[in-house]
Design a protein that fits this description.
With 118 residues, the chain is an all-alpha fold. The protein has helices spanning 2-18, 23-44, 50-76, 80-111, 114-117.
């Protein structure tokens, strides 16, 4: 649930600064779904190896792009062309997720309660 609340807040605040559009709804949906999935994994699997965390962060970049492409389909009627054209950006998002995970995980693992990372 905390992941969904974070998704709503992050999308709303960032879009206030960067511009609000129909995509804001789909950003909230995609970040919320990713938050729910990761939260469920955290509840079911304790003490995940670092490589599992990296893999989840990598996959999350592609899940985000896929859901945003579904959103585009709802108002433009085009999915595959938009999704294929967005794959290079999804790849950059996924790589960015991995880089941020590598950089931030040691600090977060040391300073957050165990329950927050489990």
């Amino acid at each position: 649930m905390a992941g969904v609340l974070l998704a709503i807040t992050a999308a709303y605040v960032s879009n206030l600064a960067l511009g609000v559009g129909i995509w804001t709804i789909w950003q909230i949906i995609s970040w919320g779904i990713i938050g729910l999935i990761v939260g469920f994994i955290g509840m079911k699997c304790w003490n995940k190896p670092f490589m599992v965390v990296l893999t989840i962060s990598l996959i999350s970049g592609y899940v985000y792009g896929f859901i945003l492409s579904l959103g585009t389909y709802t108002y433009s009627g085009t999915f595959f062309a938009y999704y294929i054209a967005g794959l290079p950006f999804d790849t950059l998002h996924a790589i960015g997720n991995v880089i941020f995970t590598i950089l931030l995980y040691p600090f977060l693992a040391k300073n957050l309660p165990k329950q927050a990372l489990s």
